[in-house]
Known about the structure:
Elements (H helix, E strand, L loop, with lengths): L2 H17 L4 H22 L4 H9 L18 H14 L1 H20 L4 H13 L3 E6 L15 E3 L2 E12 L6 E7 L9 E7 L3 E7 L11 E11 L8 H42 L8 H28 L3 H4 L2 H29 L1 H4 L8 H7 L1 H4 L3 H14 L9
Parallel strand pairs: 1-4
Antiparallel strand pairs: 1-3, 2-3, 3-7, 4-5, 6-7
Helix pairs in contact: 2-3, 2-4, 4-5, 4-7, 5-7, 7-8, 7-10, 7-12, 8-10, 10-14
Amino acid sequence: MNVREAVLTVDEMQASFLEQGPSLIERAARTAAAAAADAEEVDRDARFPHRAFDVAREQKLLGVMIPVEFGGFGASIHDVTDICYTLGRACASTAMIYAMHQTKVACVVRHGHGIPWMETMMRRVARDQWLLASSTTEGQNGGNIRASAAAVDHAGDTVSLVRDATVISYGAEADGLVTIARRATDAAASDQVLLALAKDDYSLKRTLGWETLGMRGTCSTGFELKVDCPADRVFPESYDKIHAQTMTPFAHLCWSSAWAGIAAAAVTRAQAFIRKAARSSGGQMPPAAAHFTAAKMSLARLRALIAANIDAFARVEHDERALGSLDFQSSITLLKVQASELAVETVMHAMRTTGLSGYRNDGEFTMGRHLRDVLSSPIMINNDRILLNAATSTLMSGVPTSLRD
């Protein structure tokens, strides 16, 4: 069988699989409906969105990116980001959890082929709809995931690890966990490996709470993470390669899509407000309509930015040289900064459209939750640090000499 025949066979398998049930769009819509129904309560109580993820599991959404041969849908980055956007319009916490989960799944899928444990994990995510948590923030590193304090300790066929994880989003609710550590006790902080763990491989002891302004349902509490597991839980590839080729692209594309969904939900409420105001005044546009126009323009720029980066990644996703290029790495890194700022701008325009009606917490046009949630985007993964770290690479890249370069 040649490569073309193999690709066609996988495509046919995926098409057959999806024909047996609802499309991914329909599955995402059903999950989003459950998420929206509980969004206010999830935010108020800072609790995990249980019902949304019960439905996501019923709809087999947690394993959409798992290859067909391991029981998944073989979904593309376009499919996954569309789901993040759909969920973001319903419940920001649900969308962000889903985005983080899919980023970890992508690491297993793209770097786990041929490794028995990683292939077992793929099957469990697809069959049992495992939810994978993310543990990348540690101690006082300020979110710098390219330097680790905790180290893997090797003892024969087993490894152990103790990690001061100041944030593990939805860690108490997850079925597994993906984390970063120094390769060995004598390794440099930047010499890192990635571990993919089942729940039996580790224990969590809560050390910090999660009482925040927004994204309250992500339950991103702090834990002491203790790992004692077989050595095959460690990816053979070094983390720097996984970080550049998979972790950063998928994280920034999925997060941005979730933030765009929040912005779209706010614009939808602003549109409803303007329509109601126009009807009550005989069709005359209220003064705040100018802010609605600005909100629509900002959302259009945000969606175009994300779509362009998704397409750019899809074109080179299996080309290691292209993924490692300075231009691609700069673009995908700065996407996070640009998208987060545009998302906040969009929600602010939407709130100014509605004025006091949006500022209130007890009306049909309230936007407090949307604003609080979207403000996490430039803060939780700090834009200033990203811009500072990107300064060297942006200085080295040339300035385009034409519009189409």
